[in-house]
Amino acid sequence: MTEREMGSEGPGGTVQAITDGVTHGDRPRPHLVVGAALLALLSILVTACSAPTAAPSPPRAPYVLPGSGLIGVSWTPSRHPANVDGYTATAQPGGRTCSANRGSAKLCNITGLKDGTTYKVQVVAHGPGGTSKAVSAGSTVAGIPWPAQDVKTVVGDSAVSVSWVAPYTDATNISSYVVTASPGSASCTTFATTCIVKGLTNGTPYRLTVVANNPFGAGLPTQPTPSVTPTISAGASPGVYYLGPLNAAAENTSTTVLQRDAGLSVELPNGRELWIFGDTSAFSSASASSGQFVGGSTAAKGRFVPGKGAGLSDVRPARSSRSAVSSQSGQFLPTPTNTYIPDGSGRACTPANGALYAARWPTGATVMTNTALVLITYTDVCVMAPDRFQVEGWGFTEYQWQGGRTRLGPVDVFPPQSSGAALPERLAFQSPVVLGGKITFYTSECSKLFIGCDSGTVSTTTVIDNPFALVNPASYVSVPTVPVSGSTWNPVNISVAAYPGGEYRIVEQTSIAGSFSVFTATSPTGPWSPLISGFLPGCNLTPTGFCYAFIGHPELSTPTSLLLTYFKPDSEQNPKIGHIVAASAQLPVKQTHPPVTLPAHY
Description:
Layout: H1 3-9, H2 13-18, E1 23-24, E2 27-28, H3 30-49, E3 60-67, E4 70-76, E5 86-92, E6 96-100, E7 107-111, E8 118-127, E9 130-131, E10 135-141, E11 149-156, E12 159-165, E13 176-182, E14 187-190, E15 194-198, E16 207-214, E17 217-218, E18 240-245, H4 248-251, E19 257-260, E20 264-267, E21 273-277, E22 280-283, E23 292-294, E24 298-302, E25 357-367, E26 373-385, E27 388-400, E28 405-414, E29 430-435, E30 438-450, E31 452-464, H5 467-470, E32 479-481, E33 493-499, E34 503-509, E35 515-521, E36 529-535, E37 548-552, E38 561-568, E39 579-586
């Protein structure tokens, strides 16, 4: 093989291919080979540099926020911000723009806009290679509010309470907020920064949004809240359990649904119960929107299982009156005829004179020393409106439970005055407790009340258990009492009863939104020590969700749980029909320690 042939097929063949046409004789010249390689590389670089630069990728996820006379535009930078010199946002109509002159910019404000006008906004990125495709940032109305901030929810019975912080922008021109629940269309509108969405279905998860409004329109909704589920037992403190309508089994009969107020219970010597209620309405069905009405009081007898809120076994009309609205209810205490319009005119409390009705509302009941009688206390009231009434008188009656007849009374110890003046709260006695031939009554007064009671007093009055003392107004002299351990009274109302084991308890309602406290003592007059406090379920900070008439029931309680009833004005079946409902509250377990015997050598 010749040398030429070796050069073309051996190790020198690659060089031969690169230097084809630049050889001299049979041998390549080294400096010409290197020069040719550099020329080839230079040609490649020139070709690459002379290619046109690509346009930048568009900005990502742009959105708009309105302001007064402007729109703020924000976005996520392009995927390759090094190829971007800046961004431009344009609003139509009008073509007003704003720019951000760097590749990592994220926002700019389009100014000079007219409040109340709807603008569509697009954003582009621009760089050496040109301008990106325009991306829509959506449309908005200049001048409308920003979304609210920090939205929080609290579930209730068939409702959700929602609160939020006003938008970061100037909120002084916000005219209202609208809160909407989804699924469905339940909503509430408010001028404050809290609102309760009612009419929801217990057990159904909901997400809620808040929209702020001003004269230029509705702002953007907030992000939906996490799912929340209303429940009948919502709002209860730990250790407080909802037991349902107390006597629903008796109220929801085949012909009538009864809505009763309050609910005092007395354990009779024969092992049965006497229940005395306040105003009663009779409805044709649980879905009815209106019904007939018995003002003042009704009564029922039945048997209960201690510790449970089971229904009454029967409902019987009282024998003292036949002015019944149905076969299931009749007036128990007679309606007072001596209450007056509270305007000093001396006119009787009647619908003809502008009142709704006069009523005799029970305030307490207990078996007397003579166990054949039940002492029932009451107040005489002139009701001017569903939420406006005035207590004008106080009295009692002695009820003979065997045979269902009144033995003494009704006796107005402090009768109404013709001026229609209110009875001083110190004379509105309630919760009689019998011990050792004496009867102790209680009064409470809240000195600072709005939704809840911030401060107040509780007083006791003890009289001899005989008719001569009971009918004598001079027998009723109140003595203030104070709780021990530095606690204070906060009574919207109180209920006092004697419990097994020689214990006495005050159930203190501290607000109409479900809060309560319980105090205990070893004598009817104290001293009183705080026992428990908490919130009852199903009560809300809204007039239709207010709860009241918190009453403890000794015969239905156990050593470890206190049974309470209270009136809840909206039931599960119909928000216009209320029921007395029951809850149990766990009590602290008293710690007992067996005696310790020490060894003799100790």
